[in-house]
């Protein structure tokens, strides 16, 4: 006789970085090789989808783009004209647009794949979001050092109008803020994606635990949160690259 359904264990197994991938319920779990976890598999799938979209499907043509090309180009142009250039300047904005677009579509794909029953969101793993935030940290610090040297770092962190005696203290505070900004990037994306999936699975788990009576209320709520999670997937990808462009632009072009 099967054991009692444990909703907590069910949720934590599906949001955790497990070695067991549930392809379909009636097939049971598939144990992945030791080096491969579900979230790593989702990263590989997301990268494959991204490369397929832009290396195979996407075709930049002289005529007005149509179909999927038109859909993708809308985001590319918006990121360049409304995010990169306003926050990083004309030259750096154009130069960083490919990187910001790659980040946006990669995060978006990883967010959306988690909404398919057999997949999970790689961005619901703090190691993944931490690596993305670390990339932004490297671009902020190392990029500024390469471009302007230690003096550029100083001007990027300390307003020139401050009194001389307060500048060392302000410098230490800004260094701390540098780390806090990247930690915020990491935690915001991770927490939003994990929380959304936990909520959806909680409502679906209630249907399993309490049957038809609970399903009358729980299932519509799960569908509602599912639709909301689609919006959140786009929103979190947008917020990540918007803040990244602001943070990098602030370091490269201090306005004080």
State the main characteristics:
256 residues, globular
- Proportion in helices: over 70%
Tally of DSSP helical segments = 7
Low-pLDDT residue spans: none
**Oligomeric form:** single chain
Structure description:
This protein is mainly α and 256 residues long. 75% of the residues lie in helices and 2% in strands. It has helices at 7-15, 38-57, 67-88, 90-113, 126-157, 167-210, 212-252, and strands at residues 20-22, 29-31. Strands 1-2 form a two-stranded antiparallel sheet.
Topology (SSEs and partners):
Blueprint: H1 7-15, E1 20-22, E2 29-31, H2 38-57, H3 67-88, H4 90-113, H5 126-157, H6 167-210, H7 212-252
Antiparallel strand pairs: 1-2
Helix pairs in contact: 1-6, 2-4, 3-4, 3-7, 4-7, 5-6, 5-7, 6-7
Summarize it.
The protein is 75% helix and 2% strand. It is built from 7 helices and 2 strands; from the N terminus they run H-E-E-H-H-H-H-H-H.
């Amino acid at each position: 006789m099967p054991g009692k359904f444990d909703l907590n264990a069910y949720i934590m197994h599906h949001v955790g970085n497990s070695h067991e991938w549930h392809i379909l319920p009636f097939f049971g779990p598939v144990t992945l090789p030791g080096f491969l976890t579900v979230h790593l598999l989702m990263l590989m799938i997301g990268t494959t989808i991204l490369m397929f979209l832009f290396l195979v499907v996407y075709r930049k043509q002289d005529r007005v783009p149509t179909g999927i090309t038109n859909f993708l180009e809308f985001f590319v142009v918006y990121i360049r004209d409304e995010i990169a250039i306003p926050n990083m300047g004309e030259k750096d904005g154009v130069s960083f647009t490919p990187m910001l677009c790659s980040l946006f579509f990669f995060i978006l794909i990883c967010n959306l794949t988690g909404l398919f029953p057999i997949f999970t969101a790689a961005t619901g793993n703090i190691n993944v979001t931490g690596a993305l935030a670390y990339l932004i940290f490297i671009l902020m610090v190392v990029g500024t050092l390469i471009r302007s040297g230690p003096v550029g770092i100083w001007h990027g962190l300390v307003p020139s109008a401050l009194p001389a005696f307060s500048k060392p203290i302000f410098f230490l505070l800004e260094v701390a803020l540098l780390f806090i900004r990247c930690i915020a990037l990491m935690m915001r994306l991770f927490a939003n994606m994990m929380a959304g999936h936990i909520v959806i699975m909680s409502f679906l788990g209630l249907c399993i635990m309490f049957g038809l009576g609970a399903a009358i209320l729980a299932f519509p709520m799960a569908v509602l949160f599912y639709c909301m999670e689609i919006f959140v997937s786009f929103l979190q990808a947008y917020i990540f690259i918007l803040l990244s462009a602001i943070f990098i632009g602030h370091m490269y072009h201090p306005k004080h």
